[in-house]
TrEMBL record:
<keyword id="KW-0238">DNA-binding</keyword>
<keyword id="KW-0804">Transcription</keyword>
<dbReference type="GO" id="GO:0003700">
    <property type="term" value="F:DNA-binding transcription factor activity"/>
</dbReference>
<dbReference type="Pfam" id="PF13377">
    <property type="entry name" value="Peripla_BP_3"/>
</dbReference>
<feature type="compositionally biased region" description="Low complexity">
    <location>
        <begin position="16"/>
        <end position="30"/>
    </location>
</feature>
<feature type="region of interest" description="Disordered">
    <location>
        <begin position="1"/>
        <end position="30"/>
    </location>
</feature>
<dbReference type="InterPro" id="IPR000843">
    <property type="entry name" value="HTH_LacI"/>
</dbReference>
<protein>
    <submittedName>
        <fullName>LacI family transcriptional regulator</fullName>
    </submittedName>
</protein>
<dbReference type="Pfam" id="PF00356">
    <property type="entry name" value="LacI"/>
</dbReference>
<dbReference type="InterPro" id="IPR028082">
    <property type="entry name" value="Peripla_BP_I"/>
</dbReference>
<dbReference type="InterPro" id="IPR010982">
    <property type="entry name" value="Lambda_DNA-bd_dom_sf"/>
</dbReference>
<dbReference type="InterPro" id="IPR046335">
    <property type="entry name" value="LacI/GalR-like_sensor"/>
</dbReference>
<keyword id="KW-0805">Transcription regulation</keyword>
<dbReference type="GO" id="GO:0000976">
    <property type="term" value="F:transcription cis-regulatory region binding"/>
</dbReference>
<feature type="domain" description="HTH lacI-type">
    <location>
        <begin position="35"/>
        <end position="89"/>
    </location>
</feature>
Length: 370
């Protein structure tokens, strides 16, 4: 059974020199600055989370490390602030969720799912966005530790490894969301994007399409790579060569990037009969470009998106899309985090993989024009 310390983050302390400890006054009446938890961590050569564990959950700290930290506490005369204990009691009612971009409806739905799980446990939620930026991720971690947040759901895309390492160093409980590969000594919830890419392209092949384009996103994203793998697998299963799928990469997963990709599709020497997009925002941008060029969807070119965000069904041409259960993933991740923080070392970590579903709409229902 995997066991990971479910630690209370380091207590907030007053800045050195900001308060006086009456017991620390010298014979000459000079007042020494109050020793904080950061001073203890620095002197002992450990993280803030380790000091917090020694104070709050000593059973999860190795005996030698615990003894060293306690010796430093005794030597420095560290006294835990009562205010920090009160703060921890309040803040343990809050969990955090870190996502890439709340402007993407997929992450909005995921955060909503986390909030639903928190509400079931009478907890609140703090949403942090921009997790792809290392500086922003570091700022979020600082906020989470200083505000004594109970734990976090991490949906931080390509930066999840860096974020996980930082959370481990600071002993903050976490669950990884939107990653299909399991994390060691942690719970995770993912979606089988290889299966999703396979379903999308299989559908197009079954509709008679033999010349396809994959409008992809940044290749550093595992989800983008997995959807490509699934698409190529579907071609192989149909006896079609990989060359039947041409890739047009985009720097971002946005409508603007999709519209630019749509213009590139129009400029290809041989126009494809179908376009598979790495997410719905890209697909909506492609639809705009095709519409402005006077092409009919799906008669001239069929389009498939991914995520099945709310806007997909209400597009001018309702969009066929691979539905990823974002809210369900958020709920599951939130419940796993709450269970982990409630049971600590007795919690058994699990990896949950949800299955996507192809939702067929008007953007693919006609046969290819040629």
């Amino acid at each position: 059974m995997d066991r990971r310390p479910s630690a209370v983050p380091a207590a907030r302390t007053r800045a050195r020199g900001s308060g006086a400890d009456p017991a620390a006054a010298g014979s000459a009446g000079r007042v020494r600055p109050r020793v904080g938890i950061k001073d203890v961590a620095q002197e002992a050569g450990v993280s803030l989370g380790t000091v917090s564990n020694v104070l709050n959950r000593p059973e999860v700290v190795a005996e030698g490390t615990r003894a060293r930290v306690l010796e430093v506490i005794e030597a420095l005369g560290y006294v835990r602030a009562e205010g920090a204990r009160q703060l921890r009691g309040w803040a343990s009612r809050v969990i955090a969720v870190m996502v890439l971009d709340m402007a993407n409806p997929f992450f909005t739905a995921l955060a909503t799912g986390v909030e639903q799980a928190a509400r079931e446990a009478d907890l609140g939620v703090m949403v942090c966005t921009g997790a792809h930026d290392p500086a922003e991720a570091a700022r979020h971690l600082s906020l989470i530790t200083s505000h004594q947040v109970r734990g976090a759901v991490l949906a931080s895309g390509e930066g999840v490894g860096r974020t996980v390492a930082a959370f481990r160093r600071n002993a903050v409980p976490f669950v990884v969301a939107d990653q299909c590969a399991p994390q060691p000594a942690a719970c995770s919830v993912g979606i089988d994007d290889v299966a999703g890419g396979r379903a999308a392209v299989r559908h197009l092949v079954e509709r008679g399409h033999r010349s396809l384009v994959y409008v992809s996103g940044p290749d550093r994203l595992q989800q983008v790579r997995d959807r490509r793998r699934g698409a190529l697998a579907a071609l192989g299963a149909a006896g079609l060569p990989p060359a039947a799928l041409r890739e047009l990469p985009c720097d971002a997963l946005t409508v603007a990037a999709g519209k630019d990709a749509g213009h590139r599709v129009l400029g290809l020497p041989v126009r494809p009969t179908a376009v598979f997009c790495a997410n719905d925002l890209l697909a909506l941008g492609v639809l705009q470009a095709l519409y402005e060029a006077g092409l009919r969807v799906p008669d001239d070119i069929a389009v498939v998106g991914y995520d099945d965000i709310e806007f997909a069904a209400s597009a001018v041409v309702p969009l066929t899309s691979v539905r990823r259960p974002a809210a369900a993933m958020g709920r599951q991740a939130g419940r796993l985090l709450i269970e982990d923080t409630a049971h600590g070392g007795a919690h058994t970590h699990s990896h949950v993989v949800l299955q996507p579903e192809l939702v067929v709409r008007a953007s693919t229902l006609a046969a290819p024009a040629r």
